[in-house]
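Pipeline run #58 for the internal structure catalog. This entry was flagged by the ingest filter as a single-chain record with no existing model, so it goes straight to prediction. Upstream metadata was stripped on purpose; only the residue string is passed forward. Reviewer on rotation: M.T. Logging verbosity set to normal.
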Amino acid sequence: MKRTVLLLSFCVLLLIAAKGYTQQKVNLLDSARRLSGFSSALVAADTTPVPAIIENPLFYNYNFTYKKRLDSIQRDIPLTYNEAVQRYIDVYAGRKDMMGKMLGLSEYYFPIFENALKAYDIPSELKYLPIIESSMNSHAVSRVGATGLWQFMFSTAKGYGLNIDNFVDERKDPIQASFAAAAYFKDAYAELGDWLLAIAAYNCGTGNVNRAINKAHSRDFWEIRPFLPLETRNYVPALIAAIYVMNCPEKHQIKSQQSAFAAKTDTVQVSKVISLSDLAQALSIREDEIVNLNPSYKKKIVNGSMELPKRIIMPSASLANFAMVYDVLNNSMPIEVDTRVVQASNDDRRTFKKVKAVAVAKQPAIVYHKVGAGQNLSVIADRYHVEVQDLKAWNKLKGNSILPGQRLIVSKRTEATATPETKEGKKYISYRSGNSRHSQATGKL
């Protein structure tokens, strides 16, 4: 009898445990589905398709097949497989249209990226970075002004030799910007000595990475990850996932989509002012086709000169169009355009917030009001958008009685009320310390 009772009790306990495990698994799956929709909404709001993910210590969908595939494509950069990477694989593998476009664009852009990375002896896997930076869009501009395929901020772009003036923004030039990015990575790796740390620094700056290293007492990215800004924590897993999906598209039914770029192109150097519109007409192509191949020219004008020739990339000309193209490049009439070059000013949008914070800081700490005839505390409080109790406290009034001609404090800017924007400015300064592209403010954090 006792054995029967014990056996029945044990079975009941097993049923309860199984039900709890099943419910936990259902809840986790529901959370994952909600997260997928939430991530998609975030991506649509920014130039950078790196969604935020909710950290979950329970790695319930470990996939040995994915790990094996990552191991098989690993070269110089460690392609760690873990819960964060798996979540981003789910995100990118689910975006079949987007990743199909990336496969098509890679046929044009990857040879450019590889050439620049090879010149600086940088791992070729970094060619995938523009996928999560800009969706390989040369015209991408982030909410704070990071621009181009590699999302350079103004100051860092200038520091790495990219020219920005009233005619050209070389952050949008695939060739020039790729060489600048390669130079940045060479410097970051020389300082940090680890590729995952260098990639993290590309997003948040070497200053933030070094502070995280000091807090974690480690130089392993996955150990310092909790001490990094949120976007940077997700940045490296997102890159690893993008590398995986781009190398295994057929495993997820992702098909390459043809890009708008010409299959064959020619490069010419010009020493005069050339209109891209005139060149498109001579080539018998749409204007946007030549403009997309030369995205750095702001006015659709190439301002070449004998002292500083400029590069034009164009679809290979047919024999029928060759004479007209030659005429545009060599014999056309001068274009009526002001050729004076004016260097651009810093377009970091956070600079404007900083200026605004300084303006707030310069406002007088105390504002006074002279009481007029018929005025009371309520009228004055409404006029200056403050509370009557504030007026009484600032002026040490025991009651509500005031006299005409009396001088009252109506605005007292204390440290607590004066610094919301100023603190933001201080955060900007300290957050961007360090010599990195993003130390000048990438704006994605």
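catalog note: The chain has three domains: 64-255, 265-330, 354-431.
catalog note: The chain has 19 helices and six strands.
status: ready for reviewer M.T.
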